[in-house]
Amino acid sequence: MKLNIAVLPGDGIGPEVTKQAKKVLEAVAHQFNHTFIFKEALVGAVAIDKTGEPFPQETMDLCLKTDAVLFGAIGDPKYDNDPSAKVRPEQGLLKMRKDLGLFTNIRPVKAFEQLLDKSPLKKEIIKGADLTIYRELTGGIYFGEKKISKDGKTASDLGEYSAYEIERIAHAAFKAAQVRRKKLTLVDKANVLESSRLWRKVVTEIAKEYKDVELHYLFVDNAAMQMILNPTQFDVILTDNLFGDIISDEASVIGGSIGLLASASIGEKHAVFEPIHGSYPQATGKGIANPIASILSAAMLLEHFGLNEEAAVIHKAVDKSLELKISTPDILPDSKITTSKVGDFIADYIHYPEDTNMNYHNIHIGQSTII
Ligand SMILES: NC(=O)c1ccc[n+]([C@@H]2O[C@H](COP(=O)([O-])OP(=O)(O)OC[C@H]3O[C@@H](n4cnc5c(N)ncnc54)[C@H](O)[C@@H]3O)[C@@H](O)[C@H]2O)c1
Ligand SMILES: CC(C)[C@H](C(=O)O)[C@@H](O)C(=O)O
Ligand SMILES: [Mg+2]
């Protein structure tokens, strides 16, 4: 298969982790005889520095003409610490999601067997956890009217949803539940918010079309607690933009690190694959960022095009890296293994899965571990 892939590395650790995902996709292309053509473009703070815009037209044009986008991360402390900044890197990410119509954000979370001891949560609680969050991505409070009074002392953000916006992601979430464990939990705040009551009404109605799926409702405050008390109860979670953002970072604790959590942002015509984490500015250039979230986002890209065997090969290589402790310090605190070494290992394992010497890029595994 031939795929044109736009790569938007962005800021902070974005370029380092995206480089590993690209390396892994190149290994897959080589092994399976595919042609993946990569073209890079600017987004975020680097784009503001070079063009004045966080999502320049040139980047949009590239995204429009490619098959898929591999996104790194955006964000820079110089904007985070300046509430009056008029242009911000995050606007670039939001514009991309809105203008490409990426209304469904899929965030799979699971407790890796190899990492059960690494989570701050008890092993018995997270063992077997395997859930996926369907987060609405182009509506709600993120995109409603924003106001600030003339004296700068009152501000508001409108949290608005239409039935149509709810319906289209609800169908995607029910379909996902049908091929998983047939349970869907709608997470909302319907005891307080009118928009959440609309979510309940619309989703309850749609549930009649998916009789094989059990529908549950949970208020978001309780959901946040249940996520860490009893995560195995969840299969598919459906929620709005803001709640989905918050509970997905929380859910990453189950996996052991946010550096493992991938996502796919899907619309009718376009698809972007992005780790859920941000630009982790403190880690920029240090080689300590975990590239697996980006690498697994690349696997989701392949699945999107039906390349399931290829995606499975990536998962197998990632599993092997975790098993052999070829990991960055978020998982192994004293590890000296760098971002790019993890990428090298995973790419090499795809090239030579049967290498009995286990001698990948000077990472020797066995009695004498030399790195
Ligand atoms: N999708 C995105 O591009 C995205 C997502 C979230 C935040 N942001 C932006 O990123 C900047 C920093 O935000 P933040 O500090 O709140 O969130 P962050 O996700 O960048 O980092 C939070 C913490 O998560 C951990 N972490 C994140 N990525 C990791 C990785 N690959 N490997 C290991 N550990 C990792 C680190 O402990 C870090 O301190 C902000 O400007 C924010 O707006 C962007
Ligand atoms: C950076 C920010 C705009 C973004 C969001 O809130 O959607 C991020 O936190 C994410 O989860 O992708
Ligand atoms: Mg977030």
UniProtKB/TrEMBL annotation:
<feature type="binding site">
    <location>
        <position position="221"/>
    </location>
    <ligand>
        <name>Mg(2+)</name>
    </ligand>
</feature>
<keyword id="KW-0520">NAD</keyword>
<dbReference type="GO" id="GO:0005829">
    <property type="term" value="C:cytosol"/>
</dbReference>
<feature type="binding site">
    <location>
        <position position="249"/>
    </location>
    <ligand>
        <name>Mg(2+)</name>
    </ligand>
</feature>
<comment type="similarity">
    <text>Belongs to the isocitrate and isopropylmalate dehydrogenases family. LeuB type 1 subfamily.</text>
</comment>
<dbReference type="GO" id="GO:0003862">
    <property type="term" value="F:3-isopropylmalate dehydrogenase activity"/>
</dbReference>
<feature type="domain" description="Isopropylmalate dehydrogenase-like">
    <location>
        <begin position="4"/>
        <end position="346"/>
    </location>
</feature>
<keyword id="KW-0963">Cytoplasm</keyword>
<comment type="function">
    <text>Catalyzes the oxidation of 3-carboxy-2-hydroxy-4-methylpentanoate (3-isopropylmalate) to 3-carboxy-4-methyl-2-oxopentanoate. The product decarboxylates to 4-methyl-2 oxopentanoate.</text>
</comment>
<dbReference type="GO" id="GO:0009098">
    <property type="term" value="P:L-leucine biosynthetic process"/>
</dbReference>
<dbReference type="InterPro" id="IPR019818">
    <property type="entry name" value="IsoCit/isopropylmalate_DH_CS"/>
</dbReference>
<feature type="site" description="Important for catalysis">
    <location>
        <position position="142"/>
    </location>
</feature>
<keyword id="KW-0432">Leucine biosynthesis</keyword>
<dbReference type="InterPro" id="IPR004429">
    <property type="entry name" value="Isopropylmalate_DH"/>
</dbReference>
<keyword id="KW-0560">Oxidoreductase</keyword>
<keyword id="KW-0479">Metal-binding</keyword>
<dbReference type="InterPro" id="IPR024084">
    <property type="entry name" value="IsoPropMal-DH-like_dom"/>
</dbReference>
<keyword id="KW-0464">Manganese</keyword>
<feature type="binding site">
    <location>
        <position position="107"/>
    </location>
    <ligand>
        <name>substrate</name>
    </ligand>
</feature>
<comment type="pathway">
    <text>Amino-acid biosynthesis; L-leucine biosynthesis; L-leucine from 3-methyl-2-oxobutanoate: step 3/4.</text>
</comment>
<dbReference type="GO" id="GO:0051287">
    <property type="term" value="F:NAD binding"/>
</dbReference>
<feature type="binding site">
    <location>
        <position position="245"/>
    </location>
    <ligand>
        <name>Mg(2+)</name>
    </ligand>
</feature>
<keyword id="KW-0028">Amino-acid biosynthesis</keyword>
<keyword id="KW-0100">Branched-chain amino acid biosynthesis</keyword>
<feature type="site" description="Important for catalysis">
    <location>
        <position position="189"/>
    </location>
</feature>
<comment type="subunit">
    <text>Homodimer.</text>
</comment>
<dbReference type="Pfam" id="PF00180">
    <property type="entry name" value="Iso_dh"/>
</dbReference>
<feature type="binding site">
    <location>
        <position position="135"/>
    </location>
    <ligand>
        <name>substrate</name>
    </ligand>
</feature>
<dbReference type="GO" id="GO:0000287">
    <property type="term" value="F:magnesium ion binding"/>
</dbReference>
<protein>
    <recommendedName>
        <fullName>3-isopropylmalate dehydrogenase</fullName>
        <ecNumber>1.1.1.85</ecNumber>
    </recommendedName>
</protein>
<feature type="binding site">
    <location>
        <position position="97"/>
    </location>
    <ligand>
        <name>substrate</name>
    </ligand>
</feature>
<keyword id="KW-0460">Magnesium</keyword>
<feature type="binding site">
    <location>
        <position position="221"/>
    </location>
    <ligand>
        <name>substrate</name>
    </ligand>
</feature>
